[in-house]
């Protein structure tokens, strides 16, 4: 985390989140009427981590960002003065629910890591995230930021920033978004703006502090997160504007390296910023879908598909995504065309792979052919038996085929087979809903789920009120 060359070093621990919009769409098509917005229920780190973890990219390329001049600089200069906004630690809602609905004794058996169980540094933070203890990780970031004089009550006071402190802030805000703590994230993100104030750049400080490095001390992932944050706050068009501005800068930097004399270094730099540009485009596609600007989504996906640097697998993924977007629009014929284009890019067209089976299954769902869809999703589970999206899709097919009890049994078997993986937010919402449809005596079954969550999950990214809809008067 303190090593700028591995920025963002904590991102790898979020790699279990769906990696990009086409996988989110696959989940969305297979769900019941859930309150969770799939595209935005977890923050996407994987692609950024893959791009930025390239240690062959020099700091001068990775950190490149224009130092603010003109209107951005006043006398005295406008500074970034953040601070932790909550005086107390985030609580453990699972423990509280177990105490209320089961017993305090059962709650005492809950075993998750707390900030006191790890070293009080970035290594301890990594350990908490590795174990899925995201609230504990947030609480540890508050301690570490307090050491850097940016803890509770310090907002509005000047402070010296460093790559390490900005990485801490990125991690904290990303965790808050992941946990659905959007209001806290909004308050704490506000001082950073668009990360264009002078004190987040190396040039603002004495050269002796950072060995004459220039550019942005803030990781690119942080800029992306701040641009996407309005999505979670219900103002996606603001995000669309911010992402467009971010895209313009990334494109400008990429073109700068493209104009340099041809060399390995300049080509690597161009590819590096081209990857960042694509990552922003993926976010813009997500955002355009949320505001139902399907024309913009089509335009951008076509641009990504037509990119000469796109691999065959990239093109297949994008065409598959395109087809699923067409399904969202009700354009079954258009979806079928995109799925067919994706299939034609495969070398082996005799045996369908996972993506093709899911595409065909979603198409069958759109045509109300739930039996065929179920069969296709079942074949897909033979290729990836741990993919809970497939179980969600199969459960919905069974439900719409009038087989409620079979759908419940399918979900329960998935949980028994792999509770740590299957006890995810989307499957919990669906199973809880099916319990309510099955009988008025659903409380005991939800309590059984709560016991499993208590045993196998450190944190959920949405509240138990959404997942299980447990209420005191239930």
Outline of the structure:
59% of the residues lie in helices and 0% in strands. With 474 residues, it is mostly helical. It folds into three domains: 291 residues, no CATH class; 81 residues, Serine Threonine Protein Phosphatase 5, Tetratricopeptide repeat; 89 residues, Serine Threonine Protein Phosphatase 5, Tetratricopeptide repeat, CATH 1.25.40.
Describe the structure.
The protein has 474 residues and is mainly α. 59% of the residues lie in helices and 0% in strands. It folds into three domains: 1-291, no CATH class; 304-384, Serine Threonine Protein Phosphatase 5, Tetratricopeptide repeat, CATH 1.25.40; 386-474, Serine Threonine Protein Phosphatase 5, Tetratricopeptide repeat (Alpha Horseshoe). Helix 19 packs antiparallel against helix 20 (404-417). The two termini are 46 Å apart.
Topology (elements, then pairings):
Elements: H1 21-29, H2 46-52, H3 59-62, H4 93-101, H5 104-108, H6 122-130, H7 134-147, H8 163-178, H9 182-189, H10 207-210, H11 220-232, H12 236-258, H13 264-290, H14 294-305, H15 312-328, H16 332-344, H17 354-366, H18 370-383, H19 388-400, H20 404-417, H21 419-422, H22 425-438, H23 443-456, H24 464-467
Key terms:
single chain, 474 residues, mainly alpha, Serine Threonine Protein Phosphatase 5, Tetratricopeptide repeat, 3 domains, globular, disordered N terminus
The helix/strand class is mainly alpha
**Structural domain count:** 3
Low-confidence stretches: 1-51
Tell me the strand percentage band. under 5%
Task: Give the helix level as a range of percent.
Answer: 55-70%
**Series of H and E elements:** HHHHHHHHHHHHHHHHHHHHHHHH
- Described by the principal axes of the CA atoms, the overall outline is globular
Cα-atom radius of gyration: 24 Å
Number of helices: 24
Largest sheet: none
Q: How many angstroms separate the termini?
A: 46 Å
Number of strands: 0
């Amino acid at each position: 985390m303190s090593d700028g060359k591995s920025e963002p070093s904590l991102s790898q621990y979020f790699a279990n989140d769906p990696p990009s919009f086409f996988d989110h769409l696959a989940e969305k098509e297979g769900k019941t009427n859930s309150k969770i917005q799939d595209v935005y229920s977890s923050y996407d780190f994987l692609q950024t981590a893959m791009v930025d973890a390239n240690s062959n990219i020099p700091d001068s390329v990775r950190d490149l960002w224009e130092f603010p001049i003109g209107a951005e600089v006043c006398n005295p200069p406008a500074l970034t003065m953040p601070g932790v906004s909550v005086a107390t630690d985030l609580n453990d809602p699972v423990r509280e629910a177990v105490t209320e609905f089961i017993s305090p004794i059962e709650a005492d058996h809950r075993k998750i890591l707390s900030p006191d169980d790890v070293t009080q540094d970035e290594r301890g933070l990594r350990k908490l995230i590795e174990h899925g203890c995201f609230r504990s990780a947030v609480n540890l970031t508050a301690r570490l930021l307090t050491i850097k004089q940016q803890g509770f009550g310090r907002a509005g006071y000047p402070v010296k920033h460093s790559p390490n402190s900005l990485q801490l802030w990125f991690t904290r805000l990303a965790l808050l978004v992941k946990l659905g703590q959007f209001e806290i994230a909004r308050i704490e993100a506000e001082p950073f703006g668009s990360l264009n104030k002078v004190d987040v750049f190396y040039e603002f400080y004495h050269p002796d502090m950072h060995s004459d490095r220039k550019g942005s001390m803030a990781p690119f992932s942080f800029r992306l997160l701040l641009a996407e944050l309005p999505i979670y706050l219900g103002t996606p068009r603001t995000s669309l504007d911010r992402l467009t501005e971010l895209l313009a800068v990334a494109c400008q930097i990429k073109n700068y390296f493209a104009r340099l004399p041809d060399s390995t270094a300049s080509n690597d730099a161009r590819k590096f910023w081209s990857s960042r540009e694509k990552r922003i485009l993926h976010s813009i596609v997500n955002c355009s879908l949320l505001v139902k600007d399907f024309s913009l989504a089509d335009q951008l996906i076509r641009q990504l598909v037509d990119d000469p640097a796109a691999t065959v697998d990239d093109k297949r993924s994008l065409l598959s995504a395109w087809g699923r977007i067409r399904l969202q629009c009700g354009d079954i014929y258009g979806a079928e065309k995109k799925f067919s284009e994706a299939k034609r890019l495969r070398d082996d067209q005799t045996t369908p792979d996972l993506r093709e089976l899911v595409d065909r299954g979603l198409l069958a769902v759109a045509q109300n052919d739930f039996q065929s869809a179920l069969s296709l999703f079942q074949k897909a589970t033979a290729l990836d038996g741990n993919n809970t999206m497939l179980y969600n899709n199969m459960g919905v097919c069974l439900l719409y085929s009038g087989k409620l009890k079979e759908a419940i049994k399918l979900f329960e078997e998935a949980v028994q087979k792999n509770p740590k993986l299957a006890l995810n937010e989307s499957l919990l919402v669906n199973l809880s809903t099916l319990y309510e449809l099955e009988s008025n005596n659903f409380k005991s079954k939800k309590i059984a789920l709560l016991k499993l969550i208590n045993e196998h999950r450190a944190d959920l990214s949405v509240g138990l009120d959404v997942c299980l809809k447990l209420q005191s008067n239930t």
